[in-house]
């Protein structure tokens, strides 16, 4: 709206000429110009009218149909200067009035005062200016090549402003609502500004990009920026605060509670087209976290971060997890944590790469809502460095659990450098009365696609009674222990190189070739080969309340495959070993239970009623085999029998044989029965 | 050219061609896969709840019969295991005439698949409003995708992202598991393609889906 100097000069020269001849009685003078242009300004249908007043002043009225200005096209422009006066090379126009209309901004009007004191010396004051329902005022001063501008406006309708300013693209589509109050003050010399101060208050701002990945709703903002240029470099100091509303920048959603606004403060220097230095950037999210950062950005030839460092302080859980972490973790095993505690962190970035990273934990609790794992009372630090000396750190845990197994207090010492991370000394994680001794733990390929974990551990004997109690299994006695060497975790597959030994029921169970795919996925798949060596059946049957059997049990479960912890495939063979030195006895109840399992009939010369008088029977061998395929257990026994197979082959008197006739049993049913056995009362043999 | 033609017509090549044709056609039981997909999709989407109710009821009933102590019900003497599966029953019930074809059926009654089905079924109520509003739609890959964020209130967006991520995890696992449970992990992509069609066919009106050109259209 401020006419540039050349045009103004032209106009004033013209007026000057007119007043020079005003001694002649001229009552009115009119001038019409069809089309004219001065610099970037084009005027169509200009009409000027001058009428001298009694006191020597001039009344000026100018009308133009179209004025094409650099900021857009104005139509129906009317400019009135009711009392144009000239004295001592000084032109004044008090009480001026300007009206125009703009296709987007609508009707514009305002009052102005002009004071022109020769080339380069001008003061223009706008008051009562109205545009888009906003009331504004402004002042422009030109003096000996220096200039200053002051503008202020209230009630600016942002949606129309964004459209009206002809940005056309993103911003115009984005802003749909909101009002602003603006005050701006700038100064400079020549064409270049030297200093700038802007203050903006925005209320009820609604904006969204087309994809709706960045959205603000009902935002109240206030921003203040001061900038000063010296030697082609701008020093700036700004502050922006969000005091109300909701914002979404995928995937982070912020809701600003009243009285707890978010603030950002920034201080630095800017060399246009070259470099941006942030001396201080501070972001504060009250009660959630605060960040302090500094950095240097190169703007040419391409945008690049030269160096940056940041410190996160007062990160308080669970708010920080919920707002800033969980949205990024969706789809991983960490997206449903219950958290508490505090965190802090620091990062350093230089030469295009992350150089250093550390996270401090203070009484952090994290628990999976699905009950898969938990860690309580985490305290200490996790540190990493790209190059140079490895970063050492230490992390303590008060307790936790994994797959329901409680873990005790533990401490790990970690060293991390580049793509590697490892334990600098063995860690001991207590599990009941035993412990998992992690002798080494290494991760390689950190931050790459090829992440690998490897660890060696020793499980010192853990009472099975406690394990079984915790996991809701039948109470078992014995100890669980083993070497767990060379465990690798690559591509979501956990492989155990060694053998896990379970000492249970006075015998041994060895689990070999253990492999667990997608342990944290939808369908964890486990494969293993299990061998069973001389379990004491007396202890086993007592534990499972099966009915008493004396003897030993050996065998194997080969090619065991579990999907989602359910067996889908195995070849099992469990029977009394041929060289079993122990006494073989089986109780009536155990016979009955075995009978049910195998749908066996009881063969033998003796009738059921007679057998009732015996508590137990001697036997030669017993055992069952099952090949599980497609949910069907293909069953067998210790030896083929007439029309079936021996589950119990009798020996001695009274002799009893349990013979299975059914070769195929539905696995689901079999499991159901195994479970039911414990609940049934004393059985009766028919 | 002539040489090429000759070699193309050579008997060895014909045999090879024939063999490969046979392999392709018989190898993948497309009709059975579609039936299986339809059964699962209807079950998950909760449409025709009665059908699924009956199907679901069938399995436990069998169990009870088998738990009577004599054990006769539990046994499958003389009956090929395949015929006893739940799928065969369902397929028979749905498509009596398709009986012969579906003998070489697709197994979908495994604990893993049942688990995925029930997980997806229980999520359906939470997804439905977003399907209806057009916020999410069905993709060509047999998955779910957020297609119109602006239809989701800001505060619910991450909830929806999580629902979609979980649903897709289940769906991906389901396609993989059906292929694997039938001993052909390499079928995964074909099973996925069949499911992609069936999800759309079975979807209620107003649901959005991606057509063959990848454009979003409404049912």
Biggest interface goes to: A-B, 43 and 40 residues
Total strand segments of chain B: 4
Structural class of the secondary structure composition of chain B?
Answer: mainly alpha
Radius of gyration of chain A: 44 Å
Condensed summary:
By secondary structure, chain A is mainly beta. Helices cover 12% and strands 63% of the residues of chain A. In chain A, strand 3 and strand 4 form a beta hairpin.
Describe what you observe in this structure.
The complex is a heterodimer of chains A (686) and B (219). Chain A is mainly β. In chain A, 12% of the residues lie in helices and 63% in strands. Chain A has nine helices and 45 strands. With 219 residues, chain B is mainly alpha-helical. Chain B contains nine helices and four strands; from the N terminus they run H-H-H-H-H-H-H-E-E-H-H-E-E. A four-stranded mixed beta sheet of chain B has the order 2-1-3-4. The longest helix of chain B is centred in the C-terminal third of the chain and has 25 residues, at 157-181. Chain B is globular and about 45 Å long. Chain B starts with a helix and ends with a strand. Chains A and B meet through strand 13, strand 45 and helix 9 of A and helix 4, helix 5, helix 7 and helix 8 of B.
